[in-house]
Specification:
Layout lengths: L3 E4 L12 E5 L4 E8 L2 E7 L12 H4 L2 E8 H5 L3 E5 L11 H11 L3 E3 L7 H10 L5 H34 L1
Antiparallel strand pairs: 1-6, 2-3, 2-6, 3-4, 4-5, 5-7
Length: 169
Amino acid sequence: MAAVESFSTTHPGDPQPGDLIEIFRPAYQHWALYLGDGYIINVTPVDEGPPATFASAKSVFSRKARVRMQLLKDVVGNDTYHINNKYDGTYAPLPVEEIIRHAEYLIDQEVSYDLLGNNCEHFVTLLRYGEGVSDQANRAISAIGFVTAAAGAFSLLGLLRSRSRERQY
């Protein structure tokens, strides 16, 4: 299986069953797992329209997703993508037969979804490695933590400043 091989809809590369496919959407990356013969498995919000589109705000608020088997070219549309088995150095991939068997079992099932704790990257890495991980979610959680800490610091500074003004009068 390829480690990180770039390809696009005009030059698709050679994904192998069990490979992770990273799809570059305008504001985020969507993840899928390659099954073979041009098909992938991925999750899409239950309350969203066409399953190949995942770019709406509904995916942020959705709590449930549907596991879909779709053609890679349909899911990608006009976006770009590449094979990205980026966690192979940290986690050992499960045997391909086990990955595919588990993936096929989940097709058309409804699963829980959480943008930060159980998203499309968590889903496909759980299939490939037996461990759900997401750098994208970790970066978002870190950013939220930083913003929260900064807001707290500014609030504290404002409180201290207002108290020092009160003492002057």
